[in-house]
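Shipment paperwork, digital attachment
Item: protein structure file
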Amino acid sequence: MNTTCDTSFAIDECQLFLNFPEIILSLDEEGRITKANYYALKAYGYSLEELTALKITDLDASGNKLKNYSQPSLETVHKRKDGTTFPVKIQYRGLACCGCNLNLYFVQDLTQLKSVEQRAEVDQQTLELLYDSLPVGIAIYDRNERMVRCNNVFKNLLGYSQQELQQMTWQDYTHPDDVLVSRKWVDYFYAGKVTKYKLEKRYISKAGEVIWASVTVGRMLSYNNNVQRLVVVENITERKEIERLLKQESEVLNVVLFGKQSVMMEGLRFILHNLRGINLIGQVITFEDCLSLLGLRKVDILLIDQETAGENYLNYCQLLSGKYPHTKIALIGTRENDAGEKEKIPYINLQDQSQEELLLQLKGLCHMGNFVEPLDWSKYESLTPREKQILFMVASGKTNKEIGQEIHLSPSTVRNYVSTILQKLNIPNRTAAAVILYHSLLNNK
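Attachment content:
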């Protein structure tokens, strides 16, 4: 540092130096403070005499005594007379003022700026935490339909890493049947026809699993003001499954009896005619009549009397299954299943069977092939007789009010029973109880 003239008087009289709203220090060649403005005295808490007895390195609280104060700009930490510290940015300026060349150091107090930065960092960390803690998937896509970023929920939903997703387009993990409708909405979005939209679609995970999702899309801008899609994804696979089960629960099954006239068949006809959810089309006595009726009507279930079919039961079942593959076939009888067991033909034992149990088996028969977690029969046996009774009534589709009227309990009491039963069996809801029970009865009767 080199001054070309005595600046003592010039600096003392310069109003710019005296009243500048930031710290200004004048240093000699050895780094001693020779002059300081009013703001410097206020900021450091020293008098002019005290401050001019110090070197600028004496103000440094960073611990780095080798810091080069001759560089044009640096950031460090300074300390006040009372020992408190504050962050500063120091800039060296050689200025011509009042006829002299001045070597001045402008010291900017960064306390407020650092506080703002820290708050911004905290806000960003909070946003990141919120971004990854929300129970929905979030993804951001650019105009090239590439993912910019996504949260952990979205990654876990699809089973891909973020790096893998960034190398793919959304079409790569969208169900093929849903690509066209998704494409339409994306085009509407970038054409400016809509700024947000919502739809239900299916994704295909890395493991090949089909995932139903409710997708909400909104508009956001990138740092350079490019339009991006903010996509919020809620997994609704379970809801879709429940809707499917409810649809099964509410449907009416068309049933045909194949068997000769008998007291048992008369009784079965009466029961089926009065079961809710069952449409008894009629009864046939001969195989020819059975073929004719199945050709004229849509039949969901054909019940073949074991005694009527005799030794021809296997041929009957094979012929009917080949000609009418959408009709489910089962043998019925009043003794243990010895006819169809070897060929795995479904068998319904009518001995000591309640109407609710019969309905459950018929519905389970109609929906065979759908995967359902089997019932834990040890848990089932732990139910009381009353709980078993209510379980079958729930599974047959009856409401709490209907159950209460039938067994003389209040709806609230029935509701408590139902809650206890589902908890004991580890079954999530009434509809799941129905389907699980249908299949379990077919496999265990």
